[in-house]
Amino acid sequence: MSTPVFEELEKGQQIGSRELSFSRADLIRYAAASGDHNPIHWNDRFAREVGLEGVIAHGMLTMGSAVDLVSVWAGDPGAVVDYQARFTRPVPVPDAESGSPETPTARLQISGKIGAVDTERRSVRVDLSVELLSDPVAEPTAAAGAPQSGEAVRTKVLAKSQAVVQF
Amino acid sequence: MINPDRQGHRYPPAEPYQVSREAIREFALAVQAVHPAHHDVDAARALGHRDLIAPPSFAVVIAQRAEAAVVNDDEAGIDFSRVVHAEERFTHHSPIQAGDTLASQVTLERIRTMGAGAMVTTVVQISAEDGAARSTVTSTLLVRDEEDAA
Question: Residues B6-62: pLDDT tens digits?
Fold first, then answer.
């Protein structure tokens, strides 16, 4: 894959997209790798007791997973000199109804576009869109004009998710 | 109760963190980071790095060791069972690499009270053994209002 050429980059250009999914096993892996063992990320009872509907993904797992799109596009993860995000909505990761705990139960769509080009510093800001994809709730009596089945419902889970790439 | 007078307090540094290849690979796997420079030493060296480089958010692993000083600070009065992570930012002066030994130190940068709750911002400075700044990790937490103590 060829690396981007700074002089050819313009505000508004898309850098690509990627779909990610999380399973309960993925949350355990992130807890182990990060050292964040907060039980809201692995124990439904505890999560409900603190007011959640159930286990949610670590915000830092969502944030950390989204940026690889930028690392791969840039060609060098070391070129990502700044990365920030606001956590706006939780990402629920319910236990799979059957089968392996590796079964993904949350899907995310990551896409990025160039939000700003700084010619003096030779850097670009990539604005990431990070959306939770959920199946539309089956509503047999849905009025005409309502979103038809098949189209995933999109919920933004990160805001102001921006990575600065140094060239 | 949160103590706004603790704003600006700088805590003692955490124990130095030694970055291993295995920690980088395990973290990269956990965040589904497929770039080869996180997994394959030759790929990292081909890009001019000395060794494997950490994904951009790996610094959180080091930062939270420093942030533990705030969690354990009774004087700050922050109830961490009521905390929601609101914002995070990483600024890297140079990428974190396998083989690094990194110091970290946290400052309770800002306490903004809102009713019985608050927004709390911590800043962790991560530096190399020679003192050179490597990364800055800024974390903002929302401390929720205390509910009726039933």
Answer: 999 999 999 999 999 999 999 999 999 999 999 999 999 999 999 999 999 999 999
Instruction: Tell me if the domain spanning A12-22+58-136+152-166 has CATH number 3.40.50.880.
Output: no
Contact A72 B35 (CB under 8 A): yes
Distance between CA B28 and CA B17 in Å, rounded?
18
ipTM: 0.94
Note if the pTM is more than 0.80.
yes
pLDDT per residue over B65-79, tens digit each? 999 999 999 999 888
CA distance A86 to chain B (A): 4
Which residues, including other chains, have CB under 8 Å from residue B72's CB and lie 6 or more apart?
Answer: none
Count the Cβ atoms, other than its own, within 10 Å of residue A10. Answer: 9
Instruction: Find the angle CA(A164)-CA(A108)-CA(A47) to the nearest 5 degrees.
Output: 105
SS3 A39: helix
Look at residue B149 in the predicted model and tell me its pLDDT: 40
Residue A103 DSSP class: S
Sequence ranges of the domains in chain B: 4-20+59-144
Contact B57 A84 (CB under 8 A): no
Give me the residue spans of the domains in chain A: 12-22+58-136+152-166
Q: Which amino acid is at A59?
A: G
Domain B4-20+59-144, CATH class in plain words:
alpha beta
